[in-house]
């Protein structure tokens, strides 16, 4: 029964598990844009982790006032210049990274925690339960997310915490749609039938056969959503509904710097650049991950 | 053993119509027997295979697999059935979870149905894979690292892990290369010899393969069995015009067709199989049948006629076709 091709295969056993990972890493690193995205994300994470420690003027992040140094252009002492109350913008941008990361992780995390279970339930059960979940999802998806978030923050009152709550509440429906569609196609897979024939119950089907095969699109969407959530929070901050000055949040910093455009451009430019690079980084990384994890959806 | 008694499986459509995938099938497989189930695509043969394991609910009728009633069985009974009946699917590329190693896939049934764990489990899995010709280095590979034939062997190992009394083979070779098909078929033949008490339902549209592996054959058309009997009897002396058409359509497996007894006057089939939503009245085959007669075949549904030892055909003229 054994043919030559079988016995000729190399007898490597342990490295087998990592071979897949290595192949994916190789595919990912071949893409320049994906590597640029990864570099930007790593830079952002490093800034969030160590920024507050290396910031030259840490007291400026919490609202110190130094009118002698107000609205100075970028220089060696103040690489990003200073704002209207003399705070060092570079220090404030470094501090802002941590807030931004917190917003991105919280919003995406809560959206996944709400959306993925609902999507799995809707995909696996069918009937009126699924119908209810999907129609509510459709209602949420039919309203522009940011508008709904503004309405929610308007009701709860402005503030960074309320902004995160509002964004999380409008973010989960995308995950329901994604996971429900994936679950619907996976539950008809032949290997799911095979598992049922072997005696696997619905929970084993769900957690061993369906969920692991849903993970790739979830990871891809999550990395894209990190950028989108950061942008959303910055938008709320810009509108004065998110973080309140002098809290060092990038969107709020742009809002303040806006009144000083175009003469004192650096007040708005550098926080804007930080948002731009961070969102770009997460989007490029998400694209690269999709190419590796989910080649069929390209 | 496996028994289907007047089995009906209907799928309601959103439009209110009903697809009659299986419409009154009675088939009994004795212990140790291998029975072929042949027919065109859409004749309901795969539906029967899945229903035999309780993967598709039956609309009415009875299924007994390994002495257990499958229709209307409780979850506990279905669970007990798992070790008694197993299935091998057509597409080996789709029948293994891409995120699970081969050994985990093969171990799944053992984990669910036996107390085997740890080292004993690993040894049993390695032994099962070795028996289908997959050496130890395949244990920790993922399905995409295997060829189609290797995957199908892994699926066979998975199905045999629980020592089933009934094995349903749903076109196990039709997705494979011809050379690999031969290997798998030889292996299945060896399996029959090694497990004389195992009952197999072999679903196929390949008549040569059925002839090679099966003792009896049932021919399906539009959810019904039109002819059933011992392989030699049905193939040499087909009594249903549809069986004749199928045999005529298949390329002769022998180099010299005349060497194998007298050939009947074969008919050729035109047109497509009618939709199982609107099955024709009377005999479902009368729209394509060369011997159909107006006023009989389009009105009366033919009953099963005994046309030989353990040989039945559902045609009004089954007995007249004898000496064609």
From TrEMBL, chain A:
Task: Enumerate the transmembrane spans.
Answer: 103-129, 141-174, 194-214, 226-243, 263-286
Protein's name in the database? Peptide/nickel transport system permease protein
Cleaved signal peptide residues: none
Q: What top-level branch of life does the organism fall under?
A: Bacteria
Kindly give the InterPro entries that the UniProt entry links to this protein: BP-dependent_transpt_permease, MetI-like, MetI-like_sf, OppC_N
- Compartments where found: Cell membrane
Q: Which Gene3D superfamilies match?
A: MetI-like
- A GO CC term attached to the entry: plasma membrane
Q: Which UniProt keywords apply?
A: Cell membrane, Membrane, Peptide transport, Protein transport, Transmembrane, Transmembrane helix, Transport
Q: Which family does it belong to?
A: Belongs to the binding-protein-dependent transport system permease family.
A Pfam family matched in the record: BPD_transp_1
Q: Name one GO biological process term.
A: peptide transport
Boundaries of each ABC transmembrane type-1 domain copy?
A: 97-286
Query: Which topology term describes how it sits in the membrane?
Result: Multi-pass membrane protein
Please report the organism this UniProt entry assigns to the protein: Albimonas pacifica
From TrEMBL, chain B:
Keyword Zinc-finger carried by entry:
no
Compartment(s) where it occurs, according to its Swiss-Prot or TrEMBL record: Cell inner membrane
The ABC transporter domain, residue ranges: 2-247
Q: Which UniProt keywords apply?
A: ATP-binding, Nucleotide-binding, Transport
Biological process per Gene Ontology, one example term: transmembrane transport
- Indicate how the chain sits in the lipid bilayer: Peripheral membrane protein
Q: What is its main location?
A: membrane
For this protein, the record's CDD domains field holds: ABC_NikE_OppD_transporters (cd03257)
**GO MF annotation: an example:** ATP hydrolysis activity
Family matches, as PROSITE patterns: ABC_TRANSPORTER_1 (PS00211), ABC_TRANSPORTER_2 (PS50893)
Nucleotide-binding among the record's keywords? yes
CC per GO annotation: plasma membrane
InterPro entries per the UniProt record, alphabetical: AAA+_ATPase, ABC_transp_ATP-bind, ABC_transporter-like_ATP-bd, ABC_transporter-like_CS, Oligopep_ABC_C, P-loop_NTPase
Family the UniProt entry places it in: Belongs to the ABC transporter superfamily.
Under the heading PANTHER family, the entry gives: D,D-DIPEPTIDE TRANSPORT ATP-BINDING PROTEIN DDPF-RELATED, TRANSPORT ATP-BINDING PROTEIN
**Under what name is this protein listed?**
Peptide/nickel transport system ATP-binding protein/oligopeptide transport system ATP-binding protein
The record lists the organism as: Albimonas pacifica
Organism phylogeny: Bacteria, Pseudomonadati, Pseudomonadota, Alphaproteobacteria, Rhodobacterales
